[in-house]
Here is the input.
Amino acid sequence: MAPEDCPGTDTDCASRTCDEGVCGVAYAAQGTATTDQSAGDCKQSVCDGMGEITSVSDATDVLDDENPCTADLCDGDAPINTNAAAGTACSAGVGKVCDGEGACVECIQAADCASNVCVSNTCVAASCMDAVKNGSETDIDCGGPDCTPCNDASPCALPSDCKSGVCTGGVCVPPACTDTVKNGEETDVDCGGPSCSPCGPEKGCSVDGDCVGGTCSGSVCVPTCTDGVKNANETDADCGGPLCNKCADTKTCSIDTDCTSDVCKSGVCAAPACNDGKLNGTEIGLDCGGPTCGPCGDGLPCTGNADCTSGVCTGNVCQAPVCGDGVKNGAEQCDDGNQDDTDGCVTGCKTATCGDGFQQAGVEACDDGNQINTDGCVAGCQVATCGDGYQQTGVEQCDDGNQAAGDCCAAGCMIEAGCEIEPNNTCATAPAAVAAPVTFRGSIRPVGDQDFYAFTVPATADLKIETFDGTGSTCASIDTVIEFRGSTCTTVLATDDESGINSCSMLTSTVNTPLRRVAPGTYYVRVEDYQNNGQIPSYTVQISFNALCGDGVKAGSEQCDDGNVANGDGCASNCVIEGKPEVEPNDTCAAATGPFPVPVGAEGLLLSGAITPIGDDDWYAFTLPGTADVWIETFDANGPGTCASTVDTVIQLYSDCATPVGPEQDQGGISNCSRINPSVNTYARRLPAGTYRVKVIDYQDNSTIPAYKLQVKITALCGNGVKEGTEECDGGPSCTATCDILREVVCNDGIDDDNDGSIDCADSECALGCGLATPCAAGEKLVVYNSKDTPLAIPDWDFTSSTINAGVTGTIQRAAVRLNISHLWIEDVDVELTSPAGTLIDLTSDNGGDGANYVSTVLDDTCANPITAGMPPFTGCYSPEAPLATLNGQASAGAWKLVVSDDEEYVSGTLNNWSLAICVAP
Here is the structure.
């Protein structure tokens, strides 16, 4: 017998039963909703637990009156519909705002309307009479294409918006006589009327006073000779032609008679000139005489002696000159009325001068008829003596203008030892080369003198060239310029005016590149006075070494100095570190040159290569002895410290032939050379011991690089006992083998791993693992790692990566990740996790729309909500886009890499930190 065989009928609240052949009734639980409900009555039909149906209040069963301006509510078990507050947004036909009385209307205030005019809850179109600035008006009911122009001081956009026709700075301004608009009481543009200046010819007028010429005819100003305008037959304004006065200089003309100067040249009145063929201006004769022109020739008119070339005007006629007439004229230099050759005027009416062969009594000590200062009669017609500053040929070796010793010219005018020997004012006359370091002594005389010295450099060197005064240590009262010249003496390699003491000169390798790494050979120095307008009685020029290759002291621009100039011993003959040469072919990773161990030290490993032909790739392999921060940089052929314009590299670091450690690095080094710097490029930090590869290419692969150097050096090495670089520690009981400070890693072993007094879940470092929705199974280790190389910048349209080195061994049973990322447009961000086995998991990509940030976002397969359905800032637990269960069974120990990418432009962000929790089976 079945329940349906029992008498009665089943209801929502009672159903028939049959228990061992006995019929009965089972009652539904009290509060069970029935299937028969009345919508909108604020009540729900439920079972009373005794098989009967009753009703209870249901505040969610509201009566929808389909009015957007009422609120549908329940008052107990009675439905009510209350009016929404005025101003509440709504949408019904043209209505968009509630009026507070249950109606959805177009407006309740002016601000609700585009025209700012609301009448009877209806928006009224803009008009030029609504007392509101709207539509295309520039001010209230004026301006724009539809309304009348505005009054002065009203806002405007165009001149047509203003009654004055002038809009300046967005404001209508009153009419003015300078606004280039005919307005106000003007009779034409900016002229006429009671306020503006009179108008010129052909301009509009009302009365004669509106015109410059004073004549208004038929509302137009008539041309006159006083109207300030060129018109009618005038050749320029109010002058020239048959009716007006002649024109002044520089005015326009047609013929000579148009000009006061009677000279019309190329259509312009020329000023009176002393060569115009016209008797004009203040001339006495044609083009001569008067205060402006030169004197007149013999026989021409004159008014005084000054008008005549001869200086003699008799009877208003210029007379011919005669030597001895007491008047200096003609070709005479003087005329004292006598023929005495010992006074100031000698034979031929010439002024007595030193060198004319006539000795002036009481003035000259000698006069040998020349200006040569190397014979017995020198400048000033003085008898030559030692110390007068003039070297007598065949008599004196030098003459520096004094009899003092110590200035290269001793008493008796003999050259002192170690000093210049003139002439040495050209490359060809420079004295024989002397080995540096050396000091030369010399003088600059006469004015314009220059001194050349030759010296030899025995080995590659950094030079210093400096001038001093005659003391050799100070610089008083001299001003030099020096040049450093090449081995042919014709090429100027460097020049300096006053980089030394006071106005002395100095060229030094610490400042001047051409003085660095100077090759062995002969070189020249030129010394001269600044501006070549003075003499220097005595100076010294010192040539010394800032660094000399082979002396055993590494200095200046030297990369090394092993005490010799031999090649092949690691330090080349020019004191450049000898790099290990590439072995071609090495254009694939498999054919990489090396591997070479990276020595610990400032120089590290230096490699040399060339990019040839175009498109060549160079690969090198190197090994690290332990966990290390690595610096990699390219240079030109000279090695560290230089990068010539012919070198433009791109480098990339690989952990193996398939896995780049970081992105391509274009620049970052000197000039266009490349540099991977662990203080900037985080992927070059804490690299585990092992073999790595570096690829070197030309930027854009469109040219060759004849020679370059590649340097790999260790900036921090774990295990050397020195905390450096990005190491957290180096040695000691609380320091790991990878130079990390011990942390609470295993979070369910009951051991205080980091000795901080907090065990397992009581330690904040275990927060991710201890908060998992599903804990690790019995027998599994709960292992939690927190990032140590963060925060890291997420570049715009680029990526960053962070690595966690996991030390606990075992197999993965389950994994979870926690993210903290700041980014204003989080949809641009993709996050991927790569396990030590190389498995890549897409954690989250392009989620969150235009929201911002991941904040304490836990990604765990056991979380109910998928990350794709979440909303920023995603705080809480979500399942990742790709399951982390894919990692189950893999080894847990090794490098875990998190890559965060920005796949759009304009916004960058920050990876603040991340954590990894793993359930590990032994």
